[in-house]
C-alpha cells in the first residue's frame, strides 16, 4: 500500500471528526491524494486494516472489516475541515482524478510544440487547457499562437470559471488522438481574470498592448477589467518620486482627493511629499471635512488616474517597469 492508501484507511477508521482535524493541518495536495485514495478504497479487508492500525485489531470485525463511505464521507470531512467552497473545489478535482493530469505532462513540453499543436484547435479548447498551466508557460504559448487566436484565447481564459467533467472528457478525447502520450485531464478550477493578469505579468509590454488593443474591439468591458487589475491605484506610488511628481501634475485636486479617500497613510504620505505644500494642505483639509462617499465613486476617481498614467506611459512620459526592473521617468 502507498502512504496515501494507508493514511486513507487510518482516517476512515478514526472517523470524520478526527479526519477533519487532521485535514485542517494539511495542504491541499496531501488532502487530495488521501481523499482520492478514500474514494477508491471500497471494501477494506481486516488484514489490510491490521497492517495500518494493528493496535485496534481487537475492536475491528475480523470478518467484514469496514466499507468506505466513499465520496460522501470525503465530502463531509472536507466541508468540516475546509469549509464548503474550498471543499467543493477539491472534490471537483478528485471526481475525475483518475483520468490523469495533462498539465503535468505539458509542463515538460516545449512551448512552440504546444502552440503548433493547438494552433488548429478551437479557442475554447485552447483556453481550458492553457488555464491549467502556470502563468509563465501560458504566456509563452499564447505569444506563439497565430495573432488572430491570441485575444480570442485570452477572452475565454478570463470568462471560463469551472469546467464540468463531461466537457473535459470530450476535450481529452479530441486531443488524445494526436497526442496519445498525454492522457486525460482532471476536473479543475480554471480561468478567471486573475489567471489572465498573472499571464500578462510574463508578457512583454508590446505584446500586452497588442492583445489589449484587440480586446478593446472584441470585448471592451473585459479589456477595462484586465487593465484595472494589471495596474492599480496603489501601484502608482511604487514609482520613484520624479515619476509621481510628473503624474500628479496631470491630475486635478478634486479627483486626487476623492481617489485618496480609502488610501492607507503610506500612500497619502507619499502623495503629500510629491505635491506642493499648499496643495497638500488643501487636500488634507478636504479629506477631514469630506463626509461618507460611495466606494464606486472612489474607484471611479482611481480609475481615471490609472487611465492618465497609462496614457502617459503610451506617450513615453513615464515608464512603468514593475516586472523585475526599476521604475524610471524618461
TrEMBL record:
Residues 112-183 form the Flagellar motor switch protein FliG middle domain. GO terms for cellular component: bacterial-type flagellum basal body; plasma membrane. Residues 214-320 form the Flagellar motor switch protein FliG C-terminal domain. Gene3D superfamilies: 1.10.220.30. GO terms for biological process: bacterial-type flagellum-dependent cell motility; chemotaxis. The keyword Protease does not apply. GO terms for molecular function: cytoskeletal motor activity. Keywords: Bacterial flagellum, Cell membrane, Cell projection, Chemotaxis, Cilium, Flagellar rotation, Flagellum, Membrane. It is a peripheral membrane protein. It is found in: Bacterial flagellum basal body; Cell membrane. Residues 1-97 form the Flagellar motor switch protein FliG N-terminal domain. NCBIfam families: fliG. FliG is one of three proteins (FliG, FliN, FliM) that forms the rotor-mounted switch complex (C ring), located at the base of the basal body. This complex interacts with the CheY and CheZ chemotaxis proteins, in addition to contacting components of the motor that determine the direction of flagellar rotation. Belongs to the FliG family. This is Flagellar motor switch protein FliG.
Amino acid at each position: 500500500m502507498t502512504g496515501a492508501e494507508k493514511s486513507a484507511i487510518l482516517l476512515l477508521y478514526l472517523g470524520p471528526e478526527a479526519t477533519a482535524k487532521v485535514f485542517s493541518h494539511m495542504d491541499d495536495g496531501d488532502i487530495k491524494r488521501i481523499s482520492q485514495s478514500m474514494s477508491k478504497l471500497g471494501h477494506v479487508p481486516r488484514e489490510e486494516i491490521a497492517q495500518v492500525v494493528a493496535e485496534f485489531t481487537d475492536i475491528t470485525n475480523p470478518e467484514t472489516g469496514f466499507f468506505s463511505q466513499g465520496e460522501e464521507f470525503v465530502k463531509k470531512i472536507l466541508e468540516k475541515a475546509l469549509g464548503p467552497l474550498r471543499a467543493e473545489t477539491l472534490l471537483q478535482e478528485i471526481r475525475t482524478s483518475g483520468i490523469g493530469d495533462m498539465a503535468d505532462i505539458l509542463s515538460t513540453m516545449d512551448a512552440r510544440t504546444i502552440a503548433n499543436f493547438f494552433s488548429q484547435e478551437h479557442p475554447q479548447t485552447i483556453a481550458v487547457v492553457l488555464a491549467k498551466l502556470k502563468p509563465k508557460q501560458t504566456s509563452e504559448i499564447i505569444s506563439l499562437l497565430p495573432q488572430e487566436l491570441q485575444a480570442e484565447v485570452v477572452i475565454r481564459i478570463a470568462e471560463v470559471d469551472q469546467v464540468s467533467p463531461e466537457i473535459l472528457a470530450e476535450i481529452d478525447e479530441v486531443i488524445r488522438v494526436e497526442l496519445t502520450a498525454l492522457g486525460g485531464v482532471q476536473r479543475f478550477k480554471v480561468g478567471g481574470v486573475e489567471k489572465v493578469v498573472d499571464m500578462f505579468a510574463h508578457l512583454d509590454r508590446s505584446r500586452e498592448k497588442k492583445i489589449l488593443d484587440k480586446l478593446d474591439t472584441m470585448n471592451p468591458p473585459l479589456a477595462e477589467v484586465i487593465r484595472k487589475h494589471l495596474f492599480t491605484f496603489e501601484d502608482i506610488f511604487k514609482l520613484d518620486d520624479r515619476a509621481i511628481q510628473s503624474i500628479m501634475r496631470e491630475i486635478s485636486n478634486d479627483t486626487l482627493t476623492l481617489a485618496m479617500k480609502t488610501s492607507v497613510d503610506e500612500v497619502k504620505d507619499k502623495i503629500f511629499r510629491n505635491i506642493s505644500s499648499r496643495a497638500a494642505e488643501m487636500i488634507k483639509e478636504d479629506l477631514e471635512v469630506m463626509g461618507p462617499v460611495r466606494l464606486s465613486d472612489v474607484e471611479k476617481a482611481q480609475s481615471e488616474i490609472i487611465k492618465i498614467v497609462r496614457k502617459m506611459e503610451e506617450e513615453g512620459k513615464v515608464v512603468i517597469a514593475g516586472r523585475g526592473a526599476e521604475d524610471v521617468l524618461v
